[in-house]
Amino acid sequence: MTTRPDVLSFSAGKPYARHTTVRDATFAVLRRLGITTIFGNPGSTEIPLLTDLPESFRYILALHEGSVVGIATGYAMGRGEPALVNLHTAAGLGNAINAIANARDCRVPLVIVVGQQDRRQLAFEPFLTGRGLERMAEDYLVWANFPARAQDLPGAIARAYHEARSGQGPALVVAPMGDWDEHADGLAAGAPEVVVRPTAIGAKEMAPLLELIASSSAPAIVVGAGTADPETWEALIELVERVECPVWQEPLFSRAGFPHDHRLFAGHLPWKRRSMREALAGHDLVLAVGTSALRTYLFDEQAALLEPGTVVAVLTDDPAEAHRSPCQLAVVAPIAQACGALSRSLLTRAARSVPPRVPTVMSDASSPVDALRVGQVFAELASRLPDDVVLVEESPSSRPELLAHLPARTPLGFVANGGGGLGFGLTGAIGLRFALHDRPVVAVLGDGSAMYTIQALWTAAHYDIGVLLIVMANGRYAVMDELARTRGGVGCWPAFEAVDVACVAEGLGCVSLSVRTHDELVRVLNEVAPTLRGRQQPLLLQVEVE
């Protein structure tokens, strides 16, 4: 039987048809895995791969590699499957490392194929040779490989897919440009066609954690991005309602891990050590679910995070999260199944309520004033956005007020940068809307943040991605100004009032509007809000705020 060029079976151990190339075999792998959308910004090392791309594949162009990876991250997050990224040797990979780091911190699987010069001349280091490409971003990768020979490339990409899924992060394969035209080898190193990951977990496996919860008189739960998918979200709700304990969202979170309007939601855990200790005071058990224990930010005092005697436990499906956690017990297991096993084994406690949350910041959101304030903007948004909105945030100085006005009510109800490096808010929103055609996607961005990946607006406009991007324009890095003030001084950086993001958007083909007054804001939101679900074109709304 002749092997068809578009069918690949490593387990069969049969040679390919004589005319089958490594490129043919790779496309067959990608079809089988269901990843036929390629995000990229092409260079010369990608010409052999991308010329005459098969009709079953689509290529999504972004104008900078940071935008490429950011959009792919949002797309993978929305679909719950790895996305395929193609980058151009060292130049492209270098530009993308910030976005790759964010994908790892956000637990998002990516398959990254990086071009390289022809391996027949690598020893001479020709122009655009990438030195050690598989090591350039290794601390942010779950797996990386430079195949020993061209024929191993399809199998390496198949393995990268499985590594990205199981490791919940980016996996990278280096692809020398001459490899694509080589003859494929059906006996080359491959990867499983199907990977089955059993998830059966019972009371026996959960016994140590069950004992801790059952013996606790005042437990609390802290959730992270690992509980943000719909299945885990529902399983965690059931567990929380059985234990009847308050739930905190971890500091500086990238995805909501629990409904923020639930009666047992206690609020957003502060990142400062003293404030975190005060928030969790009185609890004899703190269980971190889907995150490590416990994430902070700037080192602000030489003191413990929790009161003496408080037991800390971690439930995560990421071994690295467990291994770096200072805790008495760490359980590494699929979180949804683990929560289900705990719920089935625990007795229901008496119902309780969590004291009403006091918003961290609430600036004058009521009576309109000449200069718009962020609280006013978010109050008007909150009254118009649907419950299933995907809200993407990258406006650090106004984040507390955004969280106060717009609680996440559904999985992906709140999405933010996971690693701290700016640029994901704009690109991630575009990728999420690209993946989620039936959900409205709204991004709230600072003007400084928006400029990091502003080129992504061209992609949104060119591919008719109907995302609403709200830029809170204050002409400065306000969060940096505030941090400088807390040190009793002022920053050395200037303001940048002359930056007009709306004007830049128009130049990239994206429709934009500028808003300066409360009346203008109300009028524009009344027009735009009803169109969010069915939008076919992006819109950037620049709101000048005090």
Describe the protein.
This protein has 546 residues and is α/β, with parallel strands linked by helices. 34% of the residues lie in helices and 16% in strands. The chain contains 19 helices and 18 strands. The chain has helices spanning 22-33, 47-50, 65-79, 89-105, 133-136, 153-167, 203-215, 230-243, 273-279, 319-323, 335-345, 374-382, 399-405, 424-435, 447-450, 456-462, 478-486, 501-507, 518-528; strands at 37-40, 58-61, 83-87, 110-116, 143-145, 170-176, 219-223, 247-249, 265-268, 285-289, 311-316, 329-332, 390-394, 414-416, 441-446, 468-473, 511-515, 539-544. The protein has a six-stranded parallel β-sheet, with helices on both faces. Strands 9-8-7-10-11-12 form a six-stranded parallel β-sheet. A six-stranded parallel β-sheet has the order 14-13-15-16-18-17, with helices on both faces. Helix 3 (65-79) runs parallel beside helix 4, helix 7 packs across helix 11 (335-345) and helix 8 packs parallel to helix 11 (335-345). The longest helix has 17 residues, at 89-105. The radius of gyration is 25 Å and the shape is globular. The termini are far apart. The model is unreliable at 1-12 and 358-363 (pLDDT under 50).
Describe the structure using short key phrases:
546 residues; alpha/beta; 6-stranded parallel β-sheet; disordered N terminus
The major beta sheet can be summarized as:
6 strands, parallel
Helix content: 25-40%
How many strands appear in the DSSP assignment?
Answer: 18
Strand content: 15-25%
Q: Output the structural class.
A: alpha/beta
Shape: globular
Chain-averaged pLDDT: 90
How many helices does DSSP assign?
Answer: 19
Major β-sheet strand ordering: 2-1-3-4-6-5
Return residue spans where pLDDT drops below 50 for at least 5 consecutive residues.
1-12, 358-363
Q: What gyration radius follows from the Cα positions, in whole Å?
A: 25 Å
Ends distance: 72 Å
